[in-house]
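Closing statement on the DP6 sub-project.
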Amino acid sequence: MLGEKITARAHTNIALVKYWGKENEQLIIPANSSLSLTLDEFYTDTSVQFAESLNSDEITLNGNSVTDDKITKFMDIIRKKTNINTFARIESTNHVPTSAGLASSASAYAALAAAGSKAAGLNLSEKDLSRLARRGSGSATRSIFGGFAAWNKGTDDESSYGYSIEDPVKMDINMIAIILDNQPKKISSRKGMKISIETSPYYQSWIQQTTADFQTIKDAIKENDFTTLGKTAELNAMRMHSLTLSSNPSYLYINADSLEVINMVKELRENGVECYYTMDAGPNVKIICQNDKISEITDKLSDKFSSNQIKVSGPGEGIKYL
Ligand code: DP6
């Protein structure tokens, strides 16, 4: 029924095989398939309620009233699908422990797709929800699902969707996020990946390599092979970051603190503590490790970083209505 307030929760995800470039910017069709782990600790709760009395969408983010063209455009997609001309009240809260830096468009648009479509009277399958979430932000396609999830590249709106690879996750796997900077990024992922696909001379090699990485990680999940998964995820992340360096103009998300964490991971590994690093479109580093290594890694990190910069998370669940 239109007018009912619907609330949905979506968790953020960290890609093990990164998405970096669009074949179709308007529909957000990626240039390669990607694969991620949904995280338990970081999530977004969003409620949507359509109301005849409104003259525009009323958006509240973390308690503050905002105007956001991307959100309004996303709501227009839902309105068009359902022939609704009514605006909505949208309230969204990011649950990212204290100093944030990990608030992501992935959980935001997955939660908005779920709450918005249901509030508009749609009852979408998870696959169709993932296609809708994709229109807000590519990485949101995977946040509909818990555990290991993938985004099938596809070639059009119909064939570009997310799916579950394994949920609940059987592998012993965690991510330790080190929050080095919680400022908005200088070059958004949207802008950065556009520069890379248009100007990096290595872009075609990236597509070939990342397609192979996708298969390697998929097989590693099936075989419960943490080592292959970790090694490949680390390589894939650095392959993505080398696209930023080889773009024109070149840009860089890795800063001095990120490098320090990367070196710590290498040192830990040399001392027999198995762990791997990954990074997205910002300086924060995420360390991939198993349960019995968490305390050694966080001990080492606390030589340099405060405890509220270090967040440990296990696999999280898929979209749910509250
Ligand atoms: C590095 O999903 O934020 O995190 O589709 O333009 O909204 P848009 O981009 P976004 O890009 C995510 C990039 C990444 C890798 C990944 O999550 O796969």
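The chain has eight helices and 14 strands. With this model delivered, the sub-project is considered complete and its resources will be redirected to Aim 3.
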